[in-house]
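ENTRY TYPE: paired fold submission
RECORD: A
CONTENT: sequence, then structure tokens
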Amino acid sequence: MSQYFSSLFRRRPNEGWFRAGAYDVTTTDILTVVAVFTMFVYGILGAETFSNLTFQSFLVREDLQIWRIFTWSTASQPSFFELIGVVFFWSFGQQLEALFGKARYVMWVVAVTVIPAIALTGIGYLSQTVDFTNGELGLHVLFLSGIWVYAATYPNVRFFDVIPVWAFAGIFTVLDLLQFNGAGARGKVLFLLIAIG
């Protein structure tokens, strides 16, 4: 089993945008570093400052806080599970970046970040019940969307030679949808479905 974990966290030789010493810095690296940085923003500058990074569709619509359309994907609160999520995104994001190539991967990241945010901002004009009460989503949405892309590309791949990738993606998607729906966050349900779509 240890060989699966070691291969999971091995750095892929992807072409970076620039070099930092002997290290090629990729899009996945940049997103991961920014996510960790936002944990320090939360801890040092406080929750109120951090909340300026999260997606709140009514603030984009009413106060023209357009930056929220772009910053939500890396806004991560400091917690053990958030950090584990960032590590898994870093590991899996490298594989996606290798699959897409660096330029197409950036376009995919931008699409998964911007399209659901703009869609929810527009839908909020029709019904304010889909506005978020809590806008924190972070890299989790990119990670989950990426697993679906990987599953569609390689439907026979299995995690640890047991669980098909599509089943893994399905389980996590259903758990998220149940959690969001149970909390009455209809906007999050739509956001996640649009991002995966």
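RECORD: B
CONTENT: sequence, then structure tokens
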Amino acid sequence: MCGLYLEYMLVDASTLDFMPVCDRLLKDIAGKVSNEVFPDGDSGTAAWSNELALHVLEFKTINPVPSLHGLSDVFKSQVNRASAMLEKYGAMLMPTAMHPWMDPDREFKIWPHGSMEIYNRFDSIFGCKGHGWSNLQSVHINLPFADNEQFIKLHNAIRVLIPVMSGLTASSPF
């Protein structure tokens, strides 16, 4: 069983300045501010949720899925739907991993709803106004393993990619 999570920064469609409107977007689906929404109902494959920052939207599988096969269509559909909904705010999903001019020390806005106690604790411990916490987008892939032997095989396969991961995933040619 696998899980997939995609995080996107919300930005102004005309200036690309970041826009802390994730709560408004989630409210448009749920009818109230919520940490997590199910745009296709409980029977759908994907959910949308907030993250630490008010300008980040996460798409994720609701439950573990047997395979990553077919998830590209599911997530493409969710991205297209969110993109259409963001138009009313003059916003869009930023198609890169890190905002090039955001100043997190000055502009970061922590999620002020629901699980805000958790995020405030993270901030008090880790200082979340830095680029590594508030100015990033990421992909999380949860891969299964049943025992130590499978974990070792998975770890060894992933370990081969670690030296080239920056080159494979960089949103900049530099």
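NOTES ON RECORD B: The first strand starts at residue 3 and ends at 12. The mean pLDDT is 88.
STATUS: closed
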